[in-house]
Amino acid sequence: MAVNIVKERWTSKVAELTIGTGPNAVKVGGETTLPYLQFEGELPNKSLVALEVFDMAPQDWPELLTSAFADVLNDPVAWAKKCVELGAGAVALRLMSAHPDWKNASGEEVAKTAKAVADAIDVPLIVIGCGVEEKDGEILPVVADALSGKACLIGCVTPENYKTITAAAIGAGHSLIASSPLDINLAKQLNILLNEMAMPLDRIAIDPLVGALGYGIEYAYSIMERARMGALTGDKMLAMPICSFVGQEAWKSKEAKDPDVAEWGPIHDRAILWEAITASTFAVAGSSIMIMRHPEAMKLFYAWENEMRKSNAY
Amino acid sequence: MGLTGLEIFKQLPKKNCKECGQPTCLAFAMQLAAGKASLDACPYVSDAAREALDSASAPPVALIKIGVGEKAIELGNETVLFRHDKRFEHPTAITIRVSDNEDVKAKVEKINKLVFDRVGQIHEVSMVAITNDSGDAAKFAEAVKTAQDNTAYPLMLVTSDVAAMEKALEVAGANKPLVYAADANNYEAMTNLAKKYEAPLVVKGTDLNNLAEVVEKVVALGYKNLMLDSGATEISRMVADQVQIRRSALKLFRPFGYPTVAFATNDDPMMEAMNAATLIAKYAAVVVVNSAEPEHILPLITLRLNIYTDPQKPIAVESKIYEILNPGPDAPVLITTNFSLSYFCVAGDTEAARMPAYIIPVDTDGISVLTAWAAGKFTPESIADTIKKLGIMEKVNHNKIIIPGGVAVLSGKTAELTGCEVIVGPRESAGLPSFFKQRWNK
Ligand code: B12
Ligand code: SF4
Question: What is the pLDDT of residue A298?
């Protein structure tokens, strides 16, 4: 008996975003159907996994995480190179030192580090500010200028600080990560604002401000599914690749941090799975840029995605 | 999904005799369509019409029960493809495989310990699958008996050998185990066995076409207490088949109107967990894994809880005074919100610090600290009201309250409104143990 295979006829697609230049350029997005449904449409690009590098030794990372980078934590350039050796598809440099509570470093200072890291690696660079909106509005334009022509992905912009950063990014040829808290309409509004400043729609990634497994993952999951359906049914203002700060969220959780809970079993596999399953769950929902922290979690995600991308045509 | 009034009307006797309490058959049909009447009210419906109406009004995915007693599970009855459209109804049965070649008792005892307390509820695995890897019917039955004697979880009996299944069902049949599986070769005998014990039966295909074929044959034998396995073993194919089965079921393609079973089993427990997680998100009703180690199972149980929560209703706790470890008058007062995850993070970390304390969740309609703050529901006013209403400060001999570090900005106004000294705690509740050491117990 021949079963009738049910295929959706989507009318539109996700925009394709290019990060990096020349032989180092990487593409994400471009899907014409929901994640991993190869039988129904085109899924031209793999997920892009970036490993995070801090521009100063991180203060609150658990031992399992710092031990993976023990020799390079104080040297962002060496750290970034190590990430590339480990197989990272991109490096996500986080400019923590600019945070007013840490070193309150200036735009010029952090831009120097960003430039040094960009010059040392042959994968695309993602640059993340310190997370304080106002301060990021000051430093990221300086960073964008210093990295002019490198086609980086820079973030995160919010309705508070997008103007300065967007103007600089357009001029210097970068793309942007636009953050909005778990709400399709807020995401759209921000994309519209960027677009009104003449930022092309294929140079934006959506950051829905995710929560980790056990800590609000379900909200992000559903927002991503809805955003992908919006994109596939023709909503251009939602049709951007989705970027998830997987590592940042997963490594906040007790399950990834606390080695001493006997009934949870040994920390190693538990923590790696916490990060890798947070990533794979977002990938299934529609995210394609994963900012991760542990190399083993990244490798597990890669191995899983290779299997998921095998043809399932009928 | 249901039938329209007119579709139902076509099946009614059209006598307009009013015995059903309605003026006409058409009016009765309308009541039926709206779910306001039962077909039993009409004494004249033919058996054929009843059968047709029953099967047309059956849910898109049948509800299937496995096991008996407290740990029995229900699966199916799903109505959507995406959880945001309504919600997913019956959480995936996380099932651990035990081979009849291994020490069954030891593994089952390990499985019994996979019990986790999360947001105030106990979460555990759902079922134990015994696989007949020995190929020996007596050994299989023996393993099933050992499992049954040592666990209260329902069993899934995995063998394609009818003789082995028969022996195993003699041992466990009364407890309604999941019979796995009827395939193109053995379906008659397997169906008869399942029927005899009224146990749910998995139909297994070699692909979707073959699956539909075997299901129709089993249904023709008069058995509908079924689950489905498309036979896929690669994860990308499994996901595609799960999607096809759910989509077809929602379009009322009856052979696929049953919940599904998927084997995520893999020699590498990490890859196994990744695949199992994918299948939990993508519709599998039963997911089978090998690992019985808590570090591999906890992430799956957590994901299942997340994916299957009702998107319309965050899980909340009552806004009242919670006493941790018999607090006395000198115990700290911790302020949080009534989102159950927020409350239980604070409660768990306070307990872990062995710190007797009072926890006060402010009613924020069940949303988290930062969300509630951003939404204007966790405010100096709502904190002050809650403290006053619950009379918590009368229970203690100090004047201090501790608020979450994430909402440090609230401290000034809260101090003003409550007259309390407001101490800003750590951002993450995991910081509470060291916070107590440094800031409270000095
Ligand atoms: C899930 C989520 C939602 C869900 C809500 C789910 C729920 N039931 O709460 C939804 C989608 C509904 C939502 C909506 C909004 N959200 Co929201 N959301 C999140 C998200 C992803 C996770 C929140 C969560 O569940 N955390 C887990 C719980 C347990 O955390 P928690 O309550 O804070 O508790 C921790 C600590 O505070 C601490 N703690 C708790 N109590 C106590 C007590 C003491 C004494 C101490 C010491 C510590 C302590 O320990 C806990 C564990 O570490 C966060 C981003 C993120 N990744 O954190 C954004 C976030 C909280 N949301 C945000 C916003 C702005 C909103 C909206 C206003 C946006 C909008 N769309 O309009 C709405 C408001 C909703 C409304 N109007 O009702 C912002 C808040 C901004 C800010 N910091 O100023 C965040 C931080 C995202 C961001 N970075 O912008 N959100
Ligand atoms: S009892 Fe049956 S036959 Fe009589 S009016 Fe009602 S529906 Fe019609």
Answer: 98
Using CB atoms, pick whichever of B208, B294, B299 lies closest to residue A277.
B299
Atom of ligand 2 nearest to the CA of B16: 5
Residue segments in chain A with a per-residue pLDDT below the cut of 50: none
**Quick one: B175 and B218 in the same domain?**
yes
Contact between chains at B299 and A255 (C-beta distance less than 8 A) = yes
Residue span of the structural domain in which B369 resides: 322-439
Q: Residue B147's pLDDT is what? A: 98
Looking at residue B416, which CATH number applies to its domain? 3.40.50.11600
Q: How confident is the model at residue B2 (pLDDT cuts 50, 70, 90)?
A: low
Spell out the CATH class of A44-305: alpha beta
User: Are both B225 and B290 inside the same structural domain?
Assistant: yes
Assigned domain for B13 exists: yes
Kindly determine whether residue B299 and residue A258, on different chains, have CB atoms separated by under 8 Å.
no
B237/B384 same-domain check: no
- Identify which ligand lies nearest to the alpha carbon of A244: 1
Best residue among B11, B12, B26, B30 to mutate for probing ligand 2, ranked by most atoms within 8 Å of CB? B12
E strand segments, B338-428: 357-362, 400-403, 421-424
Same domain, B253 and B106: yes
Residue pairs between chains A and B whose CB atoms are closer than 8 Å: 158
Cβ-defined contact of A36 to B239 (cutoff 8 Å): yes
Q: What is the pLDDT of residues A270-312, one digit of tens each?
A: 999 999 999 999 999 999 999 999 999 999 999 999 999 999 9
Of B70, B68, B71, B74, residue with least CA distance to B88: B74
Q: How far apart are CA A165 and CA A175, in angstroms?
A: 10
Give the DSSP letter string of A80-138.
HHHHHHTT-SEEEEE-GGGSTTTT---HHHHHHHHHHHHHH-SS-EEEE--S-HHHHHH
B221-276 pLDDT tens trace: 999 999 999 999 999 999 999 999 999 999 989 999 999 999 999 999 999 999 99
Among the partner-chain residues A39, A255, A309, the one whose CB lies closest to the CB of B298 is: A255
For residue A225, what is the enclosing H or E element? Answer: helix A217-232
Residues B162 and B16 grouped into a single domain? no
Q: Do B82 and B187 share a domain, yes or no?
A: yes
Q: Give domain status of residue B70, yes or no.
A: yes
* A214–B306 C-beta distance less than 8 A: yes
B84 CB within 8 Å of a chain A CB? yes
The answer to whether B78 touches B88, Cβ cutoff 8 Å, is yes
B94-133 pLDDT, tens per residue?
999 999 999 999 999 999 999 998 877 899 999 999 999 9
Please report, for the domain that includes residue B298, its CATH number. Answer: 3.20.20.20
Alpha-carbon distance of B131 to B150, in angstroms, equals: 16
Nearest by CB: A39 against B212, B240, B273: B240
Statement to judge: residues B265 and B199 lie in one domain: yes
Q: Which residue of B has its CA nearest to A2?
A: B209
**One domain, residues B239 and B188:** yes
**Cβ neighbours of residue B104 under 8 Å, at least 6 residues apart?**
B98, B130, B143, B146, B147, B150
